[in-house]
Write a structure and sequence with these properties.
Length: 420
């Protein structure tokens, strides 16, 4: 009996293109402002009114007629933020004004308080001395000077962070159409696995992948759903897989996709839907499996991640993160790439491109003093050694080749964590 895989070994770029073709944005939903942080806008948002909606003072000071110039004036009232003044600034008078207050009728400029001096009241009348000559319009924000009426403040596809949410609030968009967070079901497979709170019996190890992937899904903006551990028994697995398919947009399994006799994931997915990818030319992560299953007319994405924790997490970053971004409406779902200088020589692999885990740190001395990222390897790159992912914020894209890349060689790096 042959044990050759029936699946062609696809280049990473081709495999990613297949995944991204299947991953289409989830239907947008009208969502209240406090819940949209981190999501992508699915509509164009315009300003229904100008901002400011009235000529507003940018200083605390006195609203004046600019042409009147320096001199002593009667203060006819206070123009404060939040209300329209009920008086007019006429010749010989000025009005006290606060930052953000509407300019009273008759005035055409503001003199800041530092350029004035309060005089003693005369017959109960407040008086002020103005020292500065200002131009008409000084220290006034004209109507619409920040945002014009009808102006587009956010385009569809915008990532909603603090500034964008501030803009939505300011134009009164209390609910907006956004792409929802993808729901991601996570299932570990393997007879050897026990939960972290359990002692390990003979032949057992603790399940790291489930908790690791839950954290990774949260970090990618998804909503994880825990399906627990499925033993390598044909009777248990399908039931858990069905639950994941029905309750989530994406199902992640780990383990059971290699060439062993108890590797049940590929045959199950072949029966249940369409397997698009069964092997990828990459190190680590070769057995990554990708399938779609139609549930009530909706295509659900299934990633059969390899069992080795490093392979699991590397393939998660390379394929699942872009897929989740696509579902969540990101216009560009790819991981960002930067260039990095090797801090030590790194061997390449003659059969597969390697995704070498490294920590990138900005180094001012690189690139003839212009600065650049220095990539320090996380050490032994064994696919079972999760310590090789600890502190890694990048995957160095080492080409498939014989030989060793020297110290200082510049390689491209996919960013998977915070850059420091
Ligand atoms: P498999 O793909 O099921 O043959 O698993 C490959 C390797 O990964 C084996 O050494 C498994 O014990 C290990 N492994 C599988 N699943 C997990 C998991 N959830 N946590 C930690 N190690 C795992
Ligand atoms: Mg297994």
């Amino acid at each position: 009996m042959s044990v050759e895989s029936a699946y062609p070994m696809l280049p990473v770029a081709d495999a990613l293109a297949i995944v991204l073709e299947q991953a289409q944005p989830l239907p947008a939903r009208l969502t209240p402002l406090p819940e949209v942080v981190g999501l992508v806008l699915a509509e164009t948002v315009r300003a229904p009114e100008p901002l400011p909606p009235f000529p507003a003072s940018t200083k605390d000071g006195y609203a004046v007629l600019a042409a009147a110039g320096p001199g002593d004036y009667t203060v006819i009232g206070d123009a404060t933020a939040g209300r329209m003044a009920d008086f007019t600034v006429a010749a010989g008078t000025v009005a006290y004004i606060t930052t953000g207050a509407p300019l009273p009728a008759g005035a055409d400029a503001v003199v800041m308080v530092e350029e004035t001096e309060l005089l003693p009241t005369r017959n109960g009348t407040r008086r002020v001395r103005v020292h500065q000559q200002v131009r008409a319009g000084a220290d006034i924000r004209p109507v619409g000077s920040d945002i014009q009426q009808g102006e587009t403040v956010l385009d569809a596809g915008a990532h909603l962070g603090a500034a964008e949410i501030g803009l939505l609030a300011t134009v009164g968009a209390a609910q907006v159409q956004v792409y929802p967070r993808p729901r991601v079901a996570i299932l570990s497979t393997g007879d050897e696995l026990v939960d972290p709170d359990q002692p390990i019996g003979p032949g057992q190890i603790r399940d790291s992948n489930r908790f690791m992937l839950q954290a990774a899904v949260l970090a990618a903006g998804g909503v994880p759903l825990d399906l627990g551990i499925a033993a390598d028994t044909p009777s248990v697995l399908p039931e858990k897989v069905e639950r994941g398919l029905h309750e989530a947009d994406v199902l992640l399994t780990s383990g059971g996709v290699s060439m062993g006799e108890l590797d049940l994931i590929k045959p199950l997915l072949e029966r249940r839907g369409q397997v698009h990818i069964g092997r990828i030319r990459m190190k680590p992560g070769k057995p990554l499996t990708f399938a779609t299953v139609l549930i009530d007319g909706q295509p659900k994405l299934v990633f059969g991640l390899p069992g080795n924790p490093v392979s699991s997490l590397v393939t998660y970053y390379l394929f699942v993160v872009p897929a989740l971004r696509k579902l969540a409406g990101w216009p560009d779902p790819h991981l960002p790439r930067v260039q990095a200088h090797l801090a030590q020589p790194l061997p390449m692999d003659g059969y597969r491109p390697e995704y070498h885990r490294a920590t990138l740190v900005w180094d001012d001395s690189l690139n003839s003093g212009n600065g650049g990222y220095l990539a320090t390897s996380t050490g032994s790159q064994s696919s079972s050694r999760l310590l090789s992912m600890r502190t890694a914020n990048a995957l160095l894209e080492l080409p498939q080749a014989e030989g060793v890349l020297p110290v200082g060689a510049v390689v491209s790096a996919l960013v998977i964590g915070e850059l420091h």
